[in-house]
Structures are given as structure tokens and as C-alpha cells.
Amino acid sequence: MSEDTQVSELGLPEDATPWIGPNGIVMERLELHLTYTCPERCVFCSEEHRMQSYKPFLVTWGRVATILRTHAARGVQAVHLTGGEPTIHPRFVDVLKLAKKLGMRTSVGTIGTMLRRPSFADQALPHLDEALFSIHGPDAATHDAIAGRTGSFDQVTDALKYAVANKANFGAFVNTVVTQANVDALPDTVEMVQKLGAQLIVISNTTPEGHGEDRYAQLAVPIEKLGEVLPQVPERAGEAIVRFFGVPMCLLGEHGSLSNDLHWDPRVTVEWQSEPGRVAFTGIYSWAPDRRRVHVDACKQCSQAGVCSGIFDKYAQLWPTDALTPQHKDQSP
Fold first, then answer.
1. 271: Cβ–Cβ under 8 A, 6 or more apart, which residues?
2. If you write DSSP's letter for every residue of 1-38 in order, what string do you get?
């Protein structure tokens, strides 16, 4: 920083400029990986390989504070804390406090490890605006088998219920990853979590990363099945908002407008990454939800191809995609 640079009361350079991407979009969201450890062993875990590679590298408080200040100076208005399990970071509450001081909206992706504990939750919730709880079934038997740990279902649902009961206007969100083991129970899962107080439910198709790629042939749900089950979900969600991630819009029937492709925000993801000769804690800039997704022949004929990111590349490599039905301009998305 030069001697001429003006600094705000929060220590932010006042002349910092925002990131501006395609079509003039300003990046306002930061996803920050706080930890590379997790007590769960989810069968689909997209972070498994990164956790194994970078577990020895600590994400220090000094590093986190610098990242938050740098991104706040460039216009980032929201931070989502992720991992691993981010709540086990020793300075988790301090991270929330600093982010709020910098004017950011705060959220966390969690399995409820620490937020289930009232003594911890009472410290964190005043500085936490929303949480995305991972719940993968309507009952302990289904969820625990997918999460890889007995007691996981009780833990995460207890955390959700405590947050809803103890903070007004708390953003209680749920992420459900769809696999062959839980797809038939998906409507029941959605109904259950909205009754617990979830206001937003994200239905995530298994992503071919980490364990999700290692086991993709055993986990990925055939698109014919997705096309049968997913359109049943919104009517079971009550007043909760539903979003479908990683799913071609044509599989959603009349609910194509609920595709997360239409509601996704550009983001910078800061995490450990391997570079030639070193490991660096740095950012990946994403302007569209098209990671590992491709347009197949059917997509090229579809009027929604400009807004739908298509199907996962791994799926297209392994199986036919004839069940995708191109939408036309005279059809509702």
C-alpha cells in the first residue's frame, strides 16, 4: 500500500475497486474455506481430496482477517464460511464478528457440529445471519448412512431447531445432496425440513468431485429418475423456497424457474490451492454455475441453453442423455 493511499477507520483502502465480470456484473460474494477437517464421512463429499491434501496447512486468524478486509474493500458484501466443517475453527466466532464489523452478511455451511451446543450457538448466532444445514434424508437411518456417522441426523436437526428458536429472522437453509440412496425419499425430506423451519431448500445433484467423482457410477441418479422425482418436490416444500443445483432445467418440468442456474451469484472462493512449487491460499473466481457442466446435443436445440448450464460432464461420459428434452420458445421453462 503506497503512502498516498487513504485508509478508512476499519483499515480498508478507500480507493480499492470492485471485481467486475461479464456484462458488468459486480462480484459481491466470498466463499471462505476455514477448515480442512470434518467429523462426517459423506459418501459424496466433493471436498474429500482437498481435505486430505491440505489438512496440514492451517488457516490462521491473521490470514482470515486479511482476506476479509481485502474483499470488503473491493465491494464484497457477503461471506459464506465453509470447509471441512467451519464451525470447528478455533476463531470461528471472531471470524463472524470481524465480517459483521466490515459490513458483510454472514453465512455458514454446516453439519451442526458446534451449533448444536447451546453454549457455542449463543456466542455465534448474534453474528450469524444464515446457515446452510446439510440434511440428506427424512430420518436418521437414511441421513446417517449417507453422512457416514451414527448420530449425524440428530446433531444437524438439533442445530437447525436451536437456531430457529433462538434468533429472530434467522436464515435457516438446508442443502440436500441427491444420490441413488435417497432420491425416492426426497419429497419426504423436503417436507420434513420445512416443518423444522427451513426457509430455503437447495436440492443438489451429486457433483463429480472428490468422493462424488470416485463413486459417481454408484451415486449419480439417472436423469430419467430425476425427471420423475424432482417435479414432485415443490408441492411438498410448503412456504419454503426450493432451488435445484446441478440439474438441467428440462428435468424440472413446469418448475424450471426454480433452477439455481437462474438464481446463482458470482463468487470468489478462497482456499488452499497447489501452484508450481508451492501451496497458496488464494481465490478462484466464478462468474457462472457451469463448473463440470456441459451442453450435449439435446441442449444445443433448447431455447434455455443460454441460461441453463447443462448436465455434469461425468454423466455425459458414462451414460446416454436422450432423456433430456429440449425446450422451445413457445414452452414455459
1. 32, 33, 50, 54, 281, 282, 284
2. --TT--B-TTS-BTT----B-GGGPBP-EEEEE--S--
Average pLDDT over residues 179-200: 98
Q: Give the pLDDT of residue 327.
A: 82
Tell whether 300 is covered by a domain.
yes
The number of distinct structural domains making up the chain is 1
Angle, helices 61-73 vs 92-101, to 10°: value is 20
- Using one digit for the tens of pLDDT, what is the confidence trace for 47-87? 999 999 999 999 999 999 999 999 999 999 999 999 999 99
3-state secondary structure of 240: coil
The whole-angstrom separation of Cα 198 and Cα 192 is 9
CATH of the domain at 277: 3.20.20.70
Question: What region does 292 belong to: left with phi over 0, alpha with psi -120 to 50, or beta?
Answer: left
Which residues lie below 8 Å from residue 274, measured CB to CB, with a gap of 6+?
53
Please state the length of the chain.
333
* Cα–Cα dist 178/189, whole Å: 11
At 241, give phi and psi (nearest 5°): -80, 140
Cis peptide preceding 84, ω within 30 of 0: yes
The answer to whether 39 and 86 have CB atoms below 8 angstroms apart is no
| pTM beyond cutoff 0.85 | yes
325 in any annotated domain = no
The burial class, CB within 10 Å (0-12 / 13-18 / 19+), for 112 is buried
Q: Are 258 and 246 in contact (CB under 8 A)?
A: no
The closest of 85, 81, 74 to 113, measured between CA atoms, is 85
For residue 6, being part of any structural domain is answered with: no
CA distances from 310 to 46, 294, 296, 298 (A): 19, 5, 7, 10
Residues of the domain holding 161: 22-318
